[in-house]
Amino acid sequence: MPSNDMPLSAPPRPAHRDGNVLRWLTAYTLSLVGDAIWMVALGFAAQEVAGPAQVGMVIAAGAVPRALLMLGGGVVADRFGPGKVVIGSDAARCVIVLGIAAALWLTTPALWLLVAGAVLFGIVDALFMPAVGALPPRLTELDQIGRIQGLRMLVIRISWIAGPPLGGLAMAYGGAAAALGAAGLLFALSVPLLMALRLRSVPNDEQPTDTAPQSAWGELVDGLRYIRRHRVIGPLMISGAMSELGTNGLLTVGLILLCGDQGWGPSGFGWIVGAFGAGQAVCAALLAVKGRVPRAGLVQNVMLVVGSASVGAVAFMPTLSAAVGMSLLSGLLCGMCGGLAIALIQTSAEPGYLGRVTSAMSLTGVGLTPLSFPLFGAAISAWGVRPVFVVGAVFSALGAVAGLSSAAVRRAELPHLPGRKNVGRPAAAPAESRI
């Protein structure tokens, strides 16, 4: 039922002071930490009953359906509303994880059980990720999306720093069953917070009653066509995909092999990756406080070029300390670039397409990028670390060409404060409703 708690004349609250946004952020954090613990527990549980190849198989069993069904999850979020989908999918993840925890507690771990659980979790995750990503424009005014994306990036970094140690601690005291139980508890705690959200109505929530509904496939094709034709979203989506494909392999496989060649070892790898994450966290905090960057489209593309170059430069640093410093700079630049890109896409998208747009953004990171890791390893084996770092950085930087080729992207701005001229879609209506 619509609520009149927020009158039209009330000044908008900054995202970091908005209770509605903070509830979503807390629920999202709990889910992210639960995700991290789930991955730790699943991997170690598989190790107890199988060899290294089977551990990889169990983890891939969840990644494959998630990647294959991600775009379909966006269709579901747009058709039924992201609020309902995110609650249902998070509750389902809780049930799946607690069910596996109970099974491991009562019986000897079996490989088939872990594979089945990973597949189910991956299927549900394909629904959860587009839905939770499509919520921010429904939580507050559009001029706060930049702040929300900064906060989102910050909690992602914090969650993936805190989650694995918490999972390891639970494993040490109670084994995989205890760790999975902890993950399930975190999912359970996030559900009531999601249910308490007040979502703003948006224009596309009211669909014409005289038009025939599209099939799910038709909605998927329509969403992809919308992305391709949009003057801002299409180029930014291509740019982001090129950036992720060019740099993510360098920051994982590439860094592992670089540290081995340079004699820096696992500890050096940890320092470099930690510095990159710290840079992203600092940048996320800055974006969360500032909220809006002038000429965001142009700044995003400049950051993409410089950030890509800094990632490539890590391989040419003569000492570990220099590599750590360059990685910190890379995290700052890439974090700002990524946050601005997501904010621009979400504030430019029509509300009825947000789920499909979010699912397309997520697909590259969770589906396509991991598939490129073996290619990076093979390329480094054939040509060496530094040439591959150069090629990956150049490929990532070329993503800026896709962005700068669009005049709409070059001129794109994040929405101004209410009362000023907005660039992009109109602000959401002030009416609110419980999920």
UniProtKB/TrEMBL annotation:
<feature type="transmembrane region" description="Helical">
    <location>
        <begin position="111"/>
        <end position="133"/>
    </location>
</feature>
<feature type="transmembrane region" description="Helical">
    <location>
        <begin position="389"/>
        <end position="409"/>
    </location>
</feature>
<keyword id="KW-0812">Transmembrane</keyword>
<feature type="transmembrane region" description="Helical">
    <location>
        <begin position="232"/>
        <end position="257"/>
    </location>
</feature>
<feature type="transmembrane region" description="Helical">
    <location>
        <begin position="269"/>
        <end position="289"/>
    </location>
</feature>
<dbReference type="Pfam" id="PF07690">
    <property type="entry name" value="MFS_1"/>
</dbReference>
<feature type="transmembrane region" description="Helical">
    <location>
        <begin position="179"/>
        <end position="197"/>
    </location>
</feature>
<feature type="transmembrane region" description="Helical">
    <location>
        <begin position="85"/>
        <end position="105"/>
    </location>
</feature>
<feature type="transmembrane region" description="Helical">
    <location>
        <begin position="301"/>
        <end position="320"/>
    </location>
</feature>
<feature type="transmembrane region" description="Helical">
    <location>
        <begin position="357"/>
        <end position="383"/>
    </location>
</feature>
<keyword id="KW-1003">Cell membrane</keyword>
<feature type="transmembrane region" description="Helical">
    <location>
        <begin position="21"/>
        <end position="41"/>
    </location>
</feature>
<dbReference type="InterPro" id="IPR036259">
    <property type="entry name" value="MFS_trans_sf"/>
</dbReference>
<keyword id="KW-0472">Membrane</keyword>
<feature type="transmembrane region" description="Helical">
    <location>
        <begin position="53"/>
        <end position="73"/>
    </location>
</feature>
<protein>
    <submittedName>
        <fullName>MFS transporter</fullName>
    </submittedName>
</protein>
<keyword id="KW-1133">Transmembrane helix</keyword>
<dbReference type="InterPro" id="IPR011701">
    <property type="entry name" value="MFS"/>
</dbReference>
<feature type="transmembrane region" description="Helical">
    <location>
        <begin position="326"/>
        <end position="345"/>
    </location>
</feature>
